[in-house]
Amino acid sequence: MSRPLDFFSQQSGTLVADGVVLEKLVESIGTPVYVYSASAFRESIRALKKHLDGVNFLICYAMKANSNLSLLRLLALEGAGADVVSGGELYRAKKAGIAPSQVVFSGVGKTDSEIAEALCSGEDGIFSFNVESAEELEVISSIAKREKKQARIALRFNPDVDPKTHPYISTGLRKNKFGIDRSEIFSLIKDIRKFENISIQGISIHIGSQLLSLSPLKQAFEMLSNLAFEVEALQKKPLLYLDVGGGVGVSYSKEKPLNLKQYCQLLHKQFGKNSAHRGRHRILLEPGRLLSANSGILITRVLFRKKRKQKDFLIVDAGMNDLMRPSLYGSHHEIIPLRNTRSSPPLRKTDIVGPVCESADCFATGRPMSSNIKRGDLLAILSAGAYGFTMAGNYNSRPRPPEILLDQGRIEVIRERESYEDLMRGEKV
Hints:
28% of the residues lie in helices and 24% in strands.
């Protein structure tokens, strides 16, 4: 399991990734800027695939974590499909070369047009819809009949399992908007004949994100396993696949993340060849953060040092519009100078804040940082590869930063910095 500095390391006193000195990169690109390591993406997915050897699996990368086309293409070349939650993500997946037959469509609010697009993608439509409600099933059935298509679906089971994560990223409790409870699943199975052009081929779960313990996953997987047997008995035919979702957490600082090998061993135990299922179901996984979080950073420049009696403020040129997680979730990101002066004395309690006109525009509060950090210095906000650029916006009419991919010494601009003209595209005076 990767940690914040596994792929971005200090060499000769400065930060380097994929053979590129990041200070030199910034000289030509400017700040703020997102920087990704291609080797980090590749090694993360290859490690997951290695531990799943012997399981019939399909990795459907959760695009909401980071949906840049170049990164999607990189993962597609490693054999990944996609987990999408909108028509826009489906469009991106196809543009990146991911076959519709390797796409699952999740989310509680699929529109009629999105459902039709998914059904009519490729020759036979997408791999599957993860259905979240009885009414959604009715709508998919109606649209599939109109389009003369067969809709393959999985019913998303809400197991009411506490993932012990942040409430905003918990999805498997009864109080959450996601999924269908056990009794309603049985009711839908019994009434399946009224849903024309529908084939129930799987059961899916996803209990939350940034999970740091195997315990809730073990509980959810056991419930999924039992439910699968009950559904098969009720509909008198086997299911083809089980979707175990994603949510495996990563280390942002000093957290002890899940052991990837142990996680995969749990999948083997519950669903593999020696389990009660005897490996006959294809297992779908939907990792997002696991593959992308520690594969990217956000580099920002110090604009001003504002000294106060109790603490100092480092005002940087990146804002909450560029990286929303700290202001939205209170999330922790390690922040280090590109030049290795972090532990240079004296240390001073420091708030690292952006220029956006909101008090919530804060990346770190009371963080011990060197008092020698000054105007013009460069800082790296680590673990920014997931839910970073993909959640970025234009608040305060701020152009979004560029995205750069580093690959064995090569530098590729995979998204250009937005211009003021970009901000106004589509508007009229």
